[in-house]
Amino acid sequence: AQSVTQPDIHITVSEGASLELRCNYSYGATPYLFWYVQSPGQGLQLLLKYFSGDTLVQGIKGFEAEFKRSQSSFNLRKPSVHWSDAAEYFCAVGAGSSNTGKLIFGQGTTLQVKP
Amino acid sequence: DADVTQTPRNRITKTGKRIMLECSQTKGHDRMYWYRQDPGLGLRLIYYSFDVKDINKGEISDGYSVSRQAQAKFSLSLESAIPNQTALYFCATSDLGSQTGANVLTFGAGSRLTVL
To answer: What tens digit of pLDDT does each residue of B26-52 get?
Structure first.
């Protein structure tokens, strides 16, 4: 069965520092992978997605993620964090033999940004 | 107006009461979903619907039912609410993407339900 693990429940970084949020997945075939962000009181917003092709994916708000099949990982990165990036981040994998929109979500990582 | 609207945004109810959470969308998507979010557990799929006549159980459907009244409307019901159904509920929609067949979810703002 598909699963997603986000090893870090909570991360604190200083504003302007670089960021990497980890995501590991378990899936037998080529996965469809997503990163979503949830700001307080808001729904989830798609940051980026990987379906196929180039393993380095660019998203909105300056985020990028790299798909590494050998490590079953899809880590999210940002070179310089802004205070407005404080939020909860979810990694997700598309379930089923083809992406039907059913997603398996990780537990989430809460990002705190220090001034 | 939001593409995916959920009502109510907040609700407090008592054990045993029937509760309905409503979702409407203006994106014209065929597919709609109900997810539940609990701290430390991420989001889990309750029910999903690929069109008005196609409704399917998700990972955690026990204690819930749904109704797809129209393409744009998908309601989640708790027939007899219990405290462990206290959670944040999200409605989402998607449309079949081109070429890859993969699709992307658009989420509502969430409905926070507290069952006392």
So the answer is: 998 889 999 999 988 999 999 999 889
